[in-house]
Amino acid sequence: MRITLGVTGGVAAYKAAELVRRLQQDNFTVQVVMTRSAREFITPLTFAALSGQKVITDLFSGAENGEANLESAIEHIAVAQRTDLLLVAPATADILAKFARGIADDFLTTLYLASTAPVIVAPAMNVNMWNHAATQENIRLLRDRGVTVVTPDEGYLACGMIGPGRLAGQEEILAAVRSVLHAHRDLQGETVLITAGPTCEDIDPVRYITNRSSGKMGYAVAEAAARRGAKVTLVSGPTALETPAGVTGIDVRTAAEMHAAVLARFAQSSIVIMAAAVADYRPAVSAGKKMKRGKEPIALQLESTTDILAEVARDKRGRLVVGFAAETDNVAENARKKLSAKNADLIVANDVTAEGAGFDVDTNIVTIFSRDGRDVALPKMTKAEVAQRILDEIVRVRAAQQKNAGELAEAFNAAIKESSH
Ligand code: CTP
């Protein structure tokens, strides 16, 4: 697993060097990011030598040569976004204020906003700075937002004062890392099959029917599920996207190929998420040769494709099946109909005509409908965040399913015992 360790400018910065070693002993790959003021206290070279990775110091410079370099900035963002956890130790009052307010004026603050990974901060500062209402308000804000705060220890501080402000001990920080990662790997042991993207149905060797799906939503779910510990297979129609790290990608083109790929993997999967925009119709005959232009109007005969979701969900035996519903009107009504018609456990519905939702944008506005009648209407958020919320719902429904199965088994065993008396 990959941890990005943000080091900010405090006397305790040297303790972060030891932390790198301890994290490595726990088999984490550590990517260090240093702020400008951290470099006044300790050199990037120390961290580069310890972590065996380039240290990221600036948003727009190469790691070593200091030249403005957009490519390296993009690369760094990509590397950092692959992180499973962002840990900032030591965290100064300044970085806490910037995180709390969403200021993004260097690499670390930009990463905080750009990443969807869990965040831990281990503050260290002068006791008065720690006790200041501004810092305490920022801490409260960050906690409310789900950031884990490893509170500083009390003791002698570098400034000569006594009180809270000393960076928490290594063991305490490591325990927070383990517990946060454990909580975020709630799909460990699950085998997740996801479909994404459009399908292409050939008219002749050069023409085809397709739709506007970019695949972004399904890919975001695949990436998030892999991060949360699942074994993920992504069956994708043609998209411009790269298969996320740790995900097995299977490329298909047509609805028929997607159907076959899903059928081949359905039995091994415990959770199936169908985010693909599968063609409902395909040309009844696909011409072997390019069709020639003529003067007369022509009609294209279409035949329906198999509803992959409805077919596999018919006999799902303990598997959790999630469908998507792309609607242009009557979203809730249509989604509820799909929930029962397709025998799905959850339907993620969106109005694809709403601004900030649907095709080819990075945001989405969805409502998650479930069999138990709970509707989760989410505001506009990034597809990465939507993916996390969908997985939260999956984990919730799965836990309820497993509890029911457990109770059923217990009742069954009790009945058997009873009848044998
Ligand atoms: N789906 C599928 N196979 C198809 C069509 C759709 O597996 N041939 C799945 C999609 O992946 C999605 C869900 O069914 O999870 C609903 O897709 P959508 O296009 O909204 O619904 P349709 O069933 O096609 O109904 P309609 O187009 O009439 O709204």
The rounded distance between the terminal residues' Cα atoms is: 53 Å
Strand order of the largest sheet: 12-11-8-13-16-17-19-20
Ranges with pLDDT <50 over ≥5 residues?
Answer: none
| Count of helical regions | 14
Full CATH superfamily name of the largest domain: CoaB-like
According to DSSP, the number of beta strands is 21
CATH architecture of the largest domain: 3-Layer(aba) Sandwich
CATH topology of the largest domain: Rossmann fold
The domain count comes to 2
What structural class do helix, strand and pairing data support?
alpha/beta
Please state the CA-atom Rg, rounded to the nearest Å: 26 Å
Mean pLDDT across the residues is 92
| Helical percentage | 25-40%
Largest sheet: 8 strands, mixed
Tell me the overall shape.
globular
Are any ligands bound, and if so which?
Answer: cytidine-5'-triphosphate
Strand content: 15-25%
* CATH class placement of the largest domain: Alpha Beta
Please describe what this structure looks like.
- The protein is α/β, with parallel strands linked by helices and 421 residues long.
- It folds into 2 domains: 2-182, Rossmann fold; 191-403, Rossmann fold.
- It has 14 helices and 21 strands.
- It has helices spanning 15-25, 38-41, 44-51, 70-81, 93-101, 107-114, 127-131, 133-144, 170-183, 216-227, 255-266, 308-314, 331-341, 383-420; strands at 2-7, 29-34, 85-91, 119-123, 148-149, 153-156, 162-166, 191-196, 201-204, 207-209, 231-236, 247-251, 271-274, 281-283, 302-304, 320-327, 346-351, 363-364, 366-370, 375-377, 381-382.
- The strands form 6 sheets. Strands 12-11-8-13-16-17-19-20 form an 8-stranded mixed beta sheet, with helices on both faces.
- It is globular and about 90 Å long.
- The model has no long low-confidence stretch (mean pLDDT 92).
- Cytidine-5'-triphosphate binds at residues 195, 255, 274, 276, 278, 280, 305, 307-309, 323-326, 338.
